[in-house]
Amino acid sequence: MIKLKSFYWKFLILLLFPWHLAAEKQDTFSGLRPSGTGGITVVIEDPTGTGSPVCIRMLLEGKLLKLSIEGKLYLTEKRDGHSSQITVQYERRADAPESGFLSWQMPSGRKGQRTFVLEGGQVAAPSVMMASKDAESGQLDISESGQPVLRYVYETNGPGAMLKSIHPNNHKYAWPRSDYIHPLYGLDGEVLTKDWAVDHPHHRGIYWAWPETFYRGENGDLHALQRVFARPTGKYRLTQGPVYAQIEAENTWLWEDHEPIVHETTMIRSYALGPEGRCIDVKFIFTALKESVTIARRGTDKYGGLNIRLAETAQQELLVHTDPAHTKPRMAWSDFLGVFRERKKWTGFAVLQRQSNPEYPGDWVQYPALQWLQPTFPSAGNRYELKKGRPIELQYRFWIRSGGKLTKNVYADQWRNYNQLGGL
Known about the structure:
Low-confidence stretches: 1-37
CATH class of the largest domain: Mainly Beta
CATH topology of the largest domain: Beta-galactosidase, Chain A, domain 5
Number of strands: 29
Strand order of the largest sheet: 17-18-19-20-29-25-24-23
Strand content: 35-45%
Shape: globular
Number of domains: 2
Mean pLDDT: 89
């Protein structure tokens, strides 16, 4: 961590991400030198050269901080005799006020060491990425240039008229719920997720829940909405800007819908559309408020964790990849390729696992007939204890793009970009 108190201070910042630390987001700075332009020279190791969102730890103060608030802070890269100006977004988080984070969309370029200059501009970058609360429903939305990207269902949502379409035997699963993503949109506005499925009314787009949630030796089902429920606390924060929009919200798991047993913080960040598609990073922090809380997959070896129910498709193909044990780095990614009903072109919805997740990598579980493909947590055969007062974190990236199946090298590059330069 380095403090940048004056715009006229001139630093060389070298960020090194060795493979064995790739997912830990540990920044190492080395050396000081003038940039030659009155700005700050930033040297960063680009693992692939393919372009991807970047988020690095950096503390800005003084004039640099003022410029970032005004939206007039940019990175400039000189390549092959040409220079390009890159919009950045700076954030100082409430949970880490002693540090800050600088984010931008890394343009494609040369793999390896790349040099940028952080400096001010005359014109403020427009905040194309917006996060807002819907006045009618109370739900939280992210959009880009007026086009919807996703909705985070924060307020409790009941089935309404959909209940008539659900078989009476399944009414017990059609319980009012919240804390999930739906709809999630593709690049052409197609809806990618499914909510209130008649066959499984508890399925709800993209949601993080466990079918075997034990408390004091008794079993609840956060996944199927039995005995334990995630409920909003009303505390949330919305961030918007030229590079990304973000939702950060708090929920409480309530046993029998009244006794708090786990505190949850959810972060959803959508980056602006880039040449390779759209990246959405999610982070979940779970902290037990009581002793004797454990979570597990169904039967301890099936579904559970980050659950993903997508919309119906005319055609589809499911891809999963996990490197063999002892591979360094060990990559884990999936891609759901589908022709969704509103369009005739293929859409790819890839999930990249983060290497810092506990018990990484999670198994892949798929139910093609349900348009279901998910990374699981915890490992098979394990009931994971949430220890009181000791938070655990899970992080993933969704990569949405137009087009069909790609080569393994392309997926590997996206995994490297996320694990070395991204995350929350």
